[in-house]
Amino acid sequence: MAENPDYSDLLHKYSDIFYRFPLTSVHGIPLMEPIVNQWDPIENFQARPDDLIISTYPKAGTTWMQEIVDLIRNKGDLEKAHRAPIYVRIPFLEICSPPPIPSGVDKLVNAPSPRVIKTHLLFQLVPKSFWENKCKMIYIARNAKDNLVSYYFFDQMNLTQPYPGTWEEYVTKFMEGKCVLIPVASRIQRQ
């Protein structure tokens, strides 16, 4: 297998093991089943003092911020920014696709410092080692209405996300905290 396989290619190649994963609760927070099944390595992930974590609700500007941070770290050098896809340059901590795709933790454990790490975890689920090491964090919030629309269409398109249902059903689930990682408003209020 290639060292940095293309995620889209792998999703198509292994379409028999990818499906709309159900939500399961971790500490009262709904997460996708593959994340819950691999929760121990995520929860016990060892952060380093020079780690930078980019924390966002899904579909709130994560990739945009990752690109900005990567450009800043590379002094605006566009050639360096094109060295690899963003998910290779800035691994996603809690991504847990079925094998043979490596998890985010697998990618990060041996990554050189300083590491920039993406997460969608709520602050209470972020591994304690980030807080103990006083790691820097960039947190992004987006207008909840805009976020809801974007996430709805993402969930329709991404066949590993839970089935979104109709727009009306999705809005209700979102407001009741039955979507991945609870509603945006509750997330911001709890911070």
Automatic annotation (TrEMBL):
EC number in record: 2.8.2.-
Keyword Ligase belongs to the record: no
Every Sulfotransferase domain range: 49-188
Enzyme class: transferase
Keywords in alphabetical order: Transferase
GO molecular function: sulfotransferase activity
UniProt xrefs under InterPro entries: P-loop_NTPase, Sulfotransferase_dom
The keyword Metal-binding appears for this protein: no
Entry's family note: Belongs to the sulfotransferase 1 family.
PANTHER family tied to this protein: SULFOTRANSFERASE SULT
Protein name according to UniProt: Sulfotransferase
Species whose genome carries this gene: Crotalus adamanteus (Eastern diamondback rattlesnake)
